[in-house]
UniProtKB/TrEMBL annotation:
Residues forming coiled coils: none
Myb/SANT-like domain: residues covered: 15-110
Compositional bias ranges of the Low complexity kind: 177-190
Sequence segments annotated as region (Disordered): 162-199
Organism: Chenopodium quinoa (Quinoa)
Name of the protein in its database record: Myb/SANT-like domain-containing protein
Length: 316
């Protein structure tokens, strides 16, 4: 785990490793395909705690917590995705799928940044998770279309934080790196007694809406997943059929070249005086089986080809 030791609000930066990023985006994508956790306006309440559980299952010593680590990382990705998607929905901006970065003239980008501050610093910087986030938020990654539900998803991250009871230490020090948002009765690493502060402005109706427990929505989400899976299956079938067709075509070309090569060798051997058709076939078989002998036969002067063929028959 890579992490600074500065304490205090805004100072406890977490430097994520490549492996931690890869695990987080994988499980975030997994939850986005699960109707138990995904709803129309983002994710259901508690999904960050679920991510914490899943990540620590494969990286037990990483020390990652739902708050502040996972919450901060997802919010950072969401804001960056929003900035990229907005640019990609505008004429003049393109996407390099291989290098995972913007394709745009620097002058166009500089002009854009003047009125879109969130896009600052993104020129020439790869964003490897853009396409995965586009799938997570069900957006058109080719055009970068940002619909209302994506804005809701970003706001949902803030709502998720608001719904978590805030743990502070008794001396009012506000470093929350050791906070476990799943178990609110646990103590911090320093052994100080945590104090639970409930956010009492949340009404039952708000909580009911945030849960998204609508059977129809779950059914639609399930059917959507099935449709996507069928689409991927047919896509793979088309790719495989194309590969097989290409392989067959290449095999036919090789067979045709081989036939032409055999005919050419037979023609050359049949030109030799005193070589019967059956012997010519034997000589051709030897020459086709050993490439270096075939080269010698072709490069030898015509008056030496007959003797070479006779010698091959003797050594057979």
């Amino acid at each position: 785990m890579m992490e600074t030791s500065n304490r205090g609000r805004g100072k406890n930066k977490r430097y994520w490793t490549y492996e931690e990023d890869a695990v987080l985006i994988r499980y975030l994508h997994e939850l986005s395909c699960d109707p138990k956790w995904k709803c129309d306006n983002g994710f259901k309440n508690g999904y960050m705690n679920k991510l914490e559980e899943m990540i620590n299952g494969v990286l037990p010593n990483c020390g990652l917590r739902a708050v502040p680590h996972i919450e901060s990382r997802i919010k950072n990705w969401s804001e960056k995705y929003s900035a990229f998607a907005e640019m990609l929905s505008t004429s003049g901006f393109g996407w390099d799928a291989e290098q995972k970065l913007l394709q745009v003239d620097k002058a166009v980008y500089d002009e854009w940044v003047k009125t879109h501050k969130k896009a600052k610093g993104l020129y020439g910087v790869p964003f490897v998770h853009y396409e995965t986030l586009a799938e997570i938020y069900a957006k058109d990654k080719a055009t970068g279309d940002v619909s209302e539900s994506f804005v809701d998803a970003i706001e949902g991250i803030d709502q998720e934080i608001d719904k978590q009871p805030l743990i502070v230490e008794s001396d009012e020090e506000d470093d929350v790196n050791s906070t476990n948002s799943d178990t609110y009765s646990s103590t911090s690493q320093s052994g100080k007694r945590p104090v639970k502060i409930e956010d009492d402005h949340i009404t039952p109706s708000k909580m009911a809406k945030s849960l998204c427990r609508n059977d129809d929505d779950d059914l639609v989400a399930s059917l959507h997943d099935v449709s996507n899976n069928f689409g991927k299956i047919f896509e793979n079938i088309n790719v495989n059929l194309g590969t097989m067709a290409s392989a067959w075509s290449k095999a036919e070309e090789r067979e045709q070249r081989m036939d032409e090569k055999v005919n050419k060798v037979l023609d050359e051997v049949m030109k030799l005086d005193g070589i019967s058709p059956s012997k010519a076939l034997e000589v051709a078989t030897i020459l086709m089986a050993e490439e270096h002998k075939l080269r010698i036969f072709y490069q030898a002067p015509f008056n030496m080809k007959k003797q070479y063929a006779i010698d091959l028959l003797k050594k057979k």
